[in-house]
Amino acid sequence: MTASPEDLDDTATELRFAVFRLARRLRSARALDAMSDAQLAVLAALRMHGRHTLSRLAERERVTAPTMSAMINGLAEQGFVVRIPDDEDRRRVHVEITEQGANVVAETIRRRDELLAGMLREVDLDDHDLSVLREASVLLRKVAEG
Question: Is 39 left (phi over 0), alpha (psi -120 to 50) or beta?
Answer without folding.
Answer: alpha
